[in-house]
Amino acid sequence: MGISTHVLDTSTGRPAAGVKITLEYDHGRFDVVCHSKTNEDGRLRLIEQPAEGVYRITFETGEY
To answer: Pick from 3, 14, 32, 41: most CB atoms within 10 A?
Structure first.
């Protein structure tokens, strides 16, 4: 099991391509694990085999 996301633009009902996403892992403080953008289908596969723990995903929608 991995961590992935799918972003939809609710104003158009279509996938949101190019949204910047940051994934962080909590080691007592949050450290960046991945920083990337959604593909044309609004999807992004972040980690294939994540370690057990707490993660935080930030969607940088302002630029979108």
So the answer is: 3
Q: What is the pTM of this model?
A: 0.87
Answer whether 6's CB lies under 8 Å from 39's CB: no
Block residue for tokens 């007592």: 28
- The angle subtended at Cα 60 by Cα 57 and Cα 63, nearest 5°, is 170
- The CA distances from residue 28 to 24, 42, 53, 55, in Å, are 12, 31, 11, 11
DSSP string, 4-52: EEE-EETTTTEE-TT-EEEEEEESSSEEEEEEEE--TTSEEEEESSPPS
